[in-house]
Amino acid sequence: MASKKERTRRGRDELQRVIDMCKSVEERGLDPFLLNIEDIITIIREYFPEWELPEDLCLDAETVHHLASVIKMQSEWVRHRSTSLYTDPFLLEEKTRRLSREQLATIFLKSWHPIVELEQISPHSLTQAIQYWKELLPINERWQKTSYTETEMGFTSRKELINQKILSEQMFSEELEALWRELLQKVDETEKIKYWNFIGSSTFEESVRRAYLTSFLVTYGYATLEINRLEEEIFIKPHKKLVPLAGKKQVVSVPVPINFDDWIKWKEGRMN
Amino acid sequence: MKKKALYASKIKRAAHLLFFRRHRKPGVKGWELRKRLGADYPKVLGILDSFLEKLDLQVKTVFEEEKPREKPSLEELDKARFYITLRGGITPKETKMMGWRIDDIAGLVITLSSIISKKGLAPRSEVEQLLRDKLPGWRVDINLNRYIKSGYIAEDENGQLYLDWRTRAEIDEGTLIKLLLGTED
Q1: Is 1.10.10.580 the CATH number for A172-267?
Q2: Prediction ipTM score
C-alpha cells in the first residue's frame, strides 16, 4: 500500500500528464478523439479526495478546464463532419497530389471571386498633402541639435544642499535612532507610553512628522504597538534592541489617523 | 421622384465607399455603411448589387462568424464586412495579367484545401511538406509567406495555419472542395 505522500505525488504527476496531453491536442490541432475522456475522468475522480492543498486543487481545476476544451473540440469536430464542407483530409491530399498544376489552377479560378478595389488620390487629399508640405520645416531645422549653455564646474557645500532642500539636516536613519532613544527614555515603569503622548508636540506639523517617523520605528522593529480596543487606546512599547520583523509569521498594518481635531483634543487634555 | 433621387444618391455613395479603399484592408463594415447611408443600407446594397450584376460584379457579405442560416439580423449585418467582388469566374489567361504564376495558384489551392479539410487549422510543417511535393524547397517558404501577406491565410503562435479574411471574402470553399474531388486526374 502506497503512503499518502507517495499517492499525492503520483496523483500530481498523473494530472500534469493529462494537462500536457490536452494542451498538445489544443495547440497542435490533433484529433481530439485521440484522448479517452472516460479514462481521464476516472483519474481525476480517483485523486480528487486526496487534494488538501490549494495548489493541488488548482491543478485539479486546471485539468478539468483543459479536459472541457478537448470535449468542446470533439463536439466541433463532430459538427464539422456533419457539414457539407467535411472531406476526408487523406482523400483530399491524395487527390491534390495527383492533379497537375494546370488543373489545380483551373479549379481555383472557378471558385475564386477576387475583390475589386481601387486606390485613387482625390483633389481633397492632394490639397491636404500640399498644405502639409508647406508647413513642414526643412530637415536641417527639424534635426537641429539641442543647444546647451556651458557653465564652469564648481563645488557645493552640505549647507547649500540643505538650504535647497536636497538634503535634510539629519540623515533619516539618524532621526529614527534619536527618536528611538527618546522613546526609551519617555516610557514609564510599564515600559510603554500612550501613542499621542509620544507623538504629540507643540505644533500640529511637528506632531505629524513624529507620527510619520514613529510608523518607521514600528515597521523597522525598534518598537511595537499595543492596542486596547475596548478603551480605544494605543500604546507604543520600545524594544531594547532592534527586532527585525522579516522572520515573524504575521505582520499586520495598523492605520492610525492623525487629524487636527485629535491634536487639539490632546493638547487641551494635557493643559487640563 | 424625390425618393428615387434619394436612393440614386445613396447608391452612388455606397459605390464610392465599397470601390475605393479607405482602410488598410479593403471592404467596409456594416455599421460604417449604416452611419453613411442610413438604416436602410441593406436595401441600398441590394439595389447596387443588381446594378453590378450586369458588369459581372457583386456585393459580397462576409459575416463575422458563420453565415446565418436564416435572414441575418441587423446586428449581424452591422458586424459583417462588405466587399465588391467578381461575380463569375476568371479565365487562366486573365490571371496571367494579375501577376500570379500558375505555381503560386496551385500552391494556394493545396494550402487552402489542406486547411479546410483539417477543420480550418493545419500545422505549417504539414502544409510545407505537401507543397514540397510539387514546388522547389526554397519556394515553399516564400509562397506561404506571400499567402499570409495577401490575407489568404494566417499563422498563430503555435505554428498553425488558418484561413484569413481574403479567403473568406474571395473563395467559395464549398465549390473549391467539390471541384477538387470531382476533377478526373
Answers
A1: yes
A2: 0.80
